């Protein structure tokens, strides 16, 4: 059993230090939901299917994330508030390589 430490800045600008388990097959969107860092109904609207971009985050510090897949890239091409460092939280599966990850939750459309 292993955990990683992640810093998440919510939509109000408050930074939270969270602990995310690597052994539960969770993704970053689910971590944000479990810590209630975004208002209910404004994150993971599509259920984590890379179809809505409500879980978009800006990666501030990337300790070694997996490359972006085609579905994620296509969804971000249609999303609002996209930046060069945008990723979908539902596509970022919690892994040991995420230790020290820092993200900011993007505004909700």
UniProtKB/TrEMBL annotation:
GO terms for molecular function: 2 iron, 2 sulfur cluster binding; electron transfer activity; metal ion binding. Transmembrane segments: none annotated. The keyword Iron applies. SUPFAM superfamilies: 2Fe-2S ferredoxin-like (SSF54292). Keywords: 2Fe-2S, Iron, Iron-sulfur, Metal-binding. GO terms for biological process: P450-containing electron transport chain. PANTHER family: FERREDOXIN/ADRENODOXIN, TRANSFER PROTEIN, PUTATIVE-RELATED. This is Ferredoxin. The lineage of its organism: Bacteria, Pseudomonadati, Bacteroidota, Flavobacteriia, Flavobacteriales.
């Amino acid at each position: 059993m292993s955990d990683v430490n992640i810093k998440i800045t919510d939509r109000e600008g408050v930074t939270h230090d969270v602990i995310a388990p690597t052994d539960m097959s969770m993704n970053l969107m689910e971590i944000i939901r479990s810590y209630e860092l975004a208002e209910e109904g404004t994150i993971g609207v599509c259920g984590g299917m890379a179809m809505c971009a409500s879980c978009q985050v800006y990666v501030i510090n990337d300790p070694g994330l997996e490359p972006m897949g085609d579905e994620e890239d296509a969804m971000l091409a249609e999303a609002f508030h996209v930046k060069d460092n945008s990723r979908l939280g539902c596509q970022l599966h919690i892994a040991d390589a995420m230790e020290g990850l820092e993200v900011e939750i993007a505004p909700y459309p």
